[in-house]
Amino acid sequence: MRKEVEKMVGEAMGKLGLEGKVQVDYPRDPKFGDYTTNVAMVMARRFKTDPRGLARRLAGVLEHPMIERVEVAGPGFVNLFMRREWWFRAFSKVLEEGEEFGRLDLGKGRKVQVEFVSANPTGPLHIGHGRGAAVGDSLARILEKAGYQVEREYYINDAGRQIRILVESIWARCLELRGENVEFPEGGYRGRYVVELAKRVLEEMPQVLESPREEALERLAQWGAREILGEIRGDLEAFGVTFDSWFSEKTLYERDLVGKALERLKERGFIYEEGGAQWFASSRLGDDKDRVVVRANGEPTYLASDIAYHALKAERGFALLVDVWGADHHGYVPRIRAALEALGYDPQMLQVLLIQMVSLIKGGEKVSMSTRQGEFVPLAELVDEVGKDAVRFIFLTRKCDAHLDFDVDLAKSQSEENPVFYVQYAHARISSIFRTAGERNIPVPASLTDVELASLELREEMELIKKVLQFPDLIQGMALSLEPHRLTYYLQELAAGFHSYYNHHRVLVEDKELREARMALVKGVQVVVGEGLRLLGVDAPCSM
RNA sequence: GCGCCUGUAGCUCAGCCGGAUAGAGCAGCGGACUUCUAAUCCGCUGGUCGGGGGUUCGAGUCCCUCCAGGCGCGCCA
Q1: In chain A, where are the structural domains located?
Q2: Of A34, A242, A302, A389, which is the most exposed, with the fewest CB atoms less than 10 Å away?
Q3: Beta carbons within 10 angstroms of residue A162's beta carbon
Q4: pTM value?
């Protein structure tokens, strides 16, 4: 819709012999019209003329059957007031399209990969992972809605030392459980889940402990990682998050992709040797310093496999790669970008979302998050306590690069006033209206699309219509900025508009034409609320 | 020391490519259910947008600088 208005303004500018980018905005205040453009001020600077005069000339030639009037205001804004039919016509399309409303062709079917969570299979997911899961999954849904073909991928770090440490931890617990006095490995995982795993080893496969140590560790490593990954998968499913692809780091080595990637870097002159190690000259492409990719002892570093992994991603034909990382990994962005560039790819194809820390507040005190200290709150526990919907919603109530204080006590004790219920309640209330209509034998038009909306004369009704119609713009904005958190704010505003309307006016009135117009209105609100909640991975209940 | 993120109402935070008088929720106070669900609504109170410069018709938004907090700067992952 905004695009159409931009076209109108563009044509008017053409009549004045001007050309340039046209920007049309929604004004903050309705007295400034339905749309506003600052082109007169922007152009005035370029052509060194008087902005208000230019605005007046533009207003003079700005004509369209759907434009009611045009005003020039302030330093040179051109404000457009549209005829009510403009909005009614657009609103009918909401009802016609239903849950498809808001679908865009922005992505033109291009492939996008969103890689997120990717927690090491060395322990249960904690709430920090949960935030990444909520952001990544919602973003994936939004990008799909915007017309991209999205793949959700989980990268499994199953080749590094962490797995080794995990299995040594399990091993140590096994021996402990059998009453042996063992030294717990340095930096080992001390979480209770390790003891649980050890118990299962003793119960389910005690013979493993009789094998030679290395052989036993190898078997336990595979088993342990698989078990933990299974739990991670379960936790994510309970959180409403699923993946299209689980990518194992180990396969990069099995297919020699790490060696090949390093070889390609070498051919391009980005690898040199120093102190017995192989270095990637990332500082030539924007990184702070060069990085070791193969240690002096011949072992590749984590970065080596990460380079191979991203090279493979680039080869897989994605137009855009989105990585969702913990903010503590932000130092990796320049080096991965450098690697992509060194290999001949566009480094900008990789966009990294850095998820800032979640501080859990319990009893008024911050609980620090560290897997290794064994002091963390599992995602599953929080979901049990607060509920999936509330957790997902709250994780998206701020931009992802801002710290998040999640006050568990507050989330529980004030669960009645949680914003997620506020939005869900709007959805449920609208369902209730139609239920009541059924009980009272009030007919609901088979097709609300064809309902005449002209009797919606209240200011609040027009505001609701306009708010609903902003949804496609919102989808576009989120898809371009990769900022899914905007959705929670939009939904709260839309729900607030509806609740207020509901408390002041009745839908099921005597007057048939008004009643059916209002039915159509609230139905449209419900469609967008429902669809918005779906994009957040939050249920949209029909009764509460 | 260097780099990245953050700093907006008592609290938690929105604020889109720079736009017109800076918003919401919570907390506080006072009201509204014989009505389609009161998990709601209505009203009031609340601001040196961390400080200081600069850019311009216009800055919470861009640039510089300083202050405060967080994170990162490994032949760890």
Answers
A1: 2-82, 161-224, 415-535
A2: A242
A3: 20
A4: 0.94
- State the fold for domain A415-535: Isoleucyl-tRNA Synthetase; Domain 1 (1.10.730)
Share of chain A above pLDDT 70, in %: 97
Indicate yes or no: strand B within 7 A of the C-beta of A277.
yes
Task: Report the amino acid identity of residue A141.
Answer: R
Q: What is the DSSP string of A319-382?
A: SEEEEEEEGGGTTHHHHHHHHHHHTTS-GGGEEEEEEPPEEEEETTEEE--BTTTTB--BHHHH
Cβ atoms of A361 and A405 closer than 8 Å? yes
| Cα–Cα dist A446/A520, whole Å | 11
**What tokens appear for A57 in the block?**
């000339």
Q: Is the CB of A414 under 7 A from strand B?
A: yes
Calculate Rg over the CA atoms of chain A: 29
β-sheet bridge partners, residue A406: A360
- CA pair distance A498, A461, nearest whole angstrom: 9
The per-residue pLDDT for range A174-188, each reduced to its tens digit, is 999 999 888 888 778
Provide mean pLDDT across the span A365-374.
Answer: 51
What would the two tokens of residue A147 be? 């017309």
Q: What's the CA dihedral at A521, A527, A530, A533 to 10 degrees?
A: -90
Distance CA A232, CA A230 (A): 5
Which stretch of DSSP H or E encloses residue A155?
A: strand A149-156
Nearest CA to A304 out of A339, A257, A254, A258 is that of A258
- Per residue in A382-398, pLDDT (tens digit) is 999 888 998 999 999 98
User: What architecture is the A2-82 domain classified under in CATH?
Assistant: 2-Layer Sandwich (3.30)
> What are φ and ψ of residue A189, in 5° steps?
-85, 125
A435 touches strand B (CB under 7 A): yes
Chain position carrying tokens 């909401």: A94
What's residue A427's pLDDT? 97
pLDDT for position A453: 95
Cβ neighbours of A56 (radius 10 Å): 15
Q: Scanning the structure block, which residue is given the tokens 């034998």?
A: A441
- Which nucleotides on strand B sit less than 7 A from a protein beta carbon? 2-7, 12-17, 19-21, 23-27, 32, 35-42, 56-58, 70-77
Interface ipTM: 0.95
